[in-house]
Amino acid sequence: MSKKTFDVLRMLRDMDGLQVERHPLPDHYAVRFDTHCRELYATMLAAMLLASGEVSDNESRLYKMLLNSLKLGDNQAKFFEQAQSINKDKLREFFRVVDEHKLAQSFFMDALVLCRLDAPITDARSQLLSQWVDLLKLNEQQTVTLSGFAANVLGLPTTVPMDVSFNHHLICVWNEWIFKVLTLADLKAGLKSNHWCVDQVFEVDFNVTIKNTHLEFLSKGEIRVKREHEIKIEHSHLQMPKMLFEQSALVAINSTVIKGDYAASEVHTAFSLQEVKAMQFSDLSVTTKNAQSFLIGCAWDHNKITPAANFLRCHFEACGSAGIIGGAISASTIALNVNQCSFIGCKAKLAGGIYGSSLKTEGGFGTSISTGKILNSYFEDCYSLLFPNTKTPQPRGFFGAGSADEDKDNGGAIFADMNASCFIEKCTFVRASVNLGKLHYKHVCSNSSFEDCYVFFEDLSRSHSEQMQNIKPVGQNSGIASGRFNNYATGNEFAF
Predict the structure, then answer these.
(1) Residue 76 in contact with residue 45, Cβ under 8 Å?
(2) I need a labelling partner for 359 at 20 to 30 A (CA). Which of 28, 244, 329, 350 fits?
(3) How far is residue 264's CA from residue 461's CA, in Å, rounded to a whole number?
């Protein structure tokens, strides 16, 4: 019998080639951009690899996987060849693309991982990386943070603290090596540090403590806490949060950054609180693009104390979307306390800043009602998209409201309905109008100013001077209008 030689090396090469198919990297952040952008990006990465002269097998393998994550196929030879002919014009075009699509941090992270994969970074690559830092306009904090992330991906020791404010979507291809995947056991033990990703729906039946933690919610990730439990979150960063609290004893979120850029095609709420007994929120920085930040509701029981939701020193910016009611806060049948907060550029179908339905306020229906006020707060460029900008106001009809003209939108900052009042004191409104609905109470708005916007209400029982004290309209497009919004079209205004 003839002896046949088995080509082990060929088989190993073939098996190696299947790594991309069997264990692909997640889609790259740059995959959303056009082919020209992605090919230019891949060419510059190839140049980094060629800086040391010889590309190792491991570097070649990882580069191939990155090409696949960029949806560029198996074209290593093409990009290595293009890298050889990079000139000043090609570099100028690359930096233009980087600036346009915010690819600087993504590129530097990829370059760090590739260059440090097999061995310490060579002098040639180190010089290139230093130049990249300057030309990519990366600051010291970004450079240090990305270096720490790269060390985590490669399994190298690092003393770099995790930056909980970093936007991890920029380096999403590496997140599974940076984050720990959250389990129910981890959540029950309490999260006290590290980066975690939430990739499933957690039904929680225990107290939750999250501190000094970065929590990244993936597309299917959600945390739902029910029954008489306490939820405490502080000094953390929540990315794309989706959290539901029902019948909880306490929800307290303090000194925390909340960020998310949600899909515009769907309706999202970052935090939904239903029948929660106590709610405390302080020193929050909240940006929930295309999503409502807080939805708070409670069934009113004459025999129980109406719960209060307290917001102190919170900053809301670019919150809300066209498909929701209440961009930053939507609250019903509770006492809402907002103090020293700011609402900038928030929008919604109705009430970009705050929507209030049957809010319980001072002097209400009995001693069982908690007190609610909006104090010392600032509203700027908040809009109700139900009332679009038009040159000719046209009645729309929504909870008794009418229309808006080209300079203002009704209830953009605050909209209250169903016999509610908000008790606004010492607040400033700039291009952010207010609709207080039907008023029964005295001094519902005092010591506040309105610049290029209006406040509207339906007077049921009191004189205007009783309800509006020390109001300061600023500019030609400011003032107090009596009755429904469409009265503005007739020029029916009141000055104080």
Answers:
(1) no
(2) 244
(3) 42
Do 64 and 32 reside in the same domain of the chain? yes
Q: Say if CB 325 and CB 388 are below 8 A apart.
A: no
Give the number of other Cβ atoms within 10 Å of residue 462's Cβ: 15
Q: Pseudo-torsion of CA 29, 32, 34, 38, nearest 10°? A: 20
Residues 120 and 260 in one domain: no
Judge if 196 and 157 occupy the same domain. Answer: no
Residue 160's domain is classified under what CATH number? 1.10.3680
Mean pLDDT by 10 residues, the chain (496 residues): 60 56 80 94 93 84 92 90 93 94 94 88 83 91 89 80 70 83 93 86 95 87 92 94 94 95 89 94 96 88 73 97 92 91 93 86 45 88 70 36 41 71 78 73 70 67 46 44 30 38
pTM: 0.66
- In 247-396, at which residue ranges do the beta strands (DSSP E only) sit? 250-261, 269-274, 279-289, 292-297, 308-312, 315-317, 329-332, 335-339, 342-344, 347-348, 354-357, 374-375, 378-380, 383-384
